[in-house]
Amino acid sequence: MKFIIESSSVPIYNRIATAFAKTLMEFGHTVHFIDASGFNEADFVNTINGIEIDYYISTNELNIVQKQSELDDSFLFEKVQTKIIFIHHDNLFSAFHSISFIADKLQALTNISQRSYHFCLEASNVDLLKSAGIPNAAKINHASEFTSAPIVTQSQLEVTFIGHLMSSLNLYPADSVPGGQHLQVIAWNRFSQSSYAVQPDVENLVHDPYVLASLGPDADKNPLATQQFLMAGLNKFSSPMRGQLISTIKNHRVDIFGGDLSYGRIKDPLLVLQQSNIHYQPATQNYQDACGIYQSSRINLNISSLQFDTAVNNRVLDVVLSGGFVLTDKRKDLFDICSFAYEISFETPEELNEKISYYSDTANNMRYLDLKVAIHELFKSSFTYVNAIDHILKRIAPLNDANHLK
């Protein structure tokens, strides 16, 4: 088959798109890997429709093909005539903060539901799409291209975190987010209990007429769009929630890579944690650098963003398949894919600190190393791009058959 995949200026998205393109070619398929950023709308649509392909693959919501038209009320994926595969590695609408935009995009996705397929990291997104009249939706897991086996050497770093964070939920300006006081409470609940499901709380807000009235006139027109609007707002609290959790670590050195969102230019107490045991390091320039950090850290900390209730993000898989040791929050999907989930996850800040102390203690090296090796063995043959592509191709086969019968 022939595919088009968009590149991306966002490193993590481009990494995923590149891996999908490379793996499809290894399967023997033809892939046009394109940079669509320089096209105007008309040229983009005409060019894509002029290429003979079977599928256009969009790996993130910021792709050009997912933009709203500047010429009319449609989206560009409605104007592209080929079948489309959407891969949602974020919550469906986490990047958008307009109820009317989310409602319009959801309707546009419904309009092309018979020639599209959606693969979602978060299981609730599959339910959302199906409730909106989009039947071709399925769950997918992240994959990793890292293949380094665990090595038994002295770790150079104690506890590390790679990613964005702020210092505190208390300091975050909740009033700047629609429904922000409610969303801040939900974030505090996740801080206290890492497996806390946020979706039911957001759904309750959508059913409160007084909350809806505070969100503006669009809020009561489309409950699904309003719920996703609130989820996008809740996700703004992810960075301060991470900082709040890391601030509870007092007895171990923590190195944070790329966590200072001001890149050292601003001393705002919201942006940087002021603790003697916490040290900020420059952001990693590429994922091979991240692989080295994962491998040389005694404990790699993962704190999932608030957009997910059940999904396991790519950092968990990357750490393990870089030969590193991960300590992560409790996610339902983690327990589904890993028989050692309890040993490498925490529910409360107190459990996080207790497990950091336990795995940092060299007296527990045998258990620490056994877990490292066992989880690597469990993940290395499962979470590959070969498996991800195989999963996608098998899922879209009925869609291909249906189109051939027309």
Plain-language structure description:
By secondary structure, this protein is α/β, with parallel strands linked by helices. Helix content is 43%, strand content 13%. The protein is built from 16 helices and twelve strands. The chain has helices at 11-26, 41-49, 76-79, 99-111, 123-131, 180-192, 199-206, 209-215, 223-235, 238-246, 287-296, 314-321, 332-337, 349-360, 365-380, 385-405; strands at 2-6, 30-34, 55-58, 83-88, 116-120, 137-139, 157-162, 254-257, 278-281, 297-302, 326-329, 345-346. The strands form two sheets. A six-stranded parallel beta sheet has the order 2-1-3-4-5-6, with helices on both faces. The radius of gyration is 22 Å and the shape is globular. 43% of the residues are buried.
Provide the fold topology.
Layout: E1 2-6, H1 11-26, E2 30-34, H2 41-49, E3 55-58, H3 76-79, E4 83-88, H4 99-111, E5 116-120, H5 123-131, E6 137-139, E7 157-162, H6 180-192, H7 199-206, H8 209-215, H9 223-235, H10 238-246, E8 254-257, E9 278-281, H11 287-296, E10 297-302, H12 314-321, E11 326-329, H13 332-337, E12 345-346, H14 349-360, H15 365-380, H16 385-405
Parallel strand pairs: 1-2, 1-3, 3-4, 4-5, 5-6, 7-8, 7-10, 8-9, 10-11, 11-12
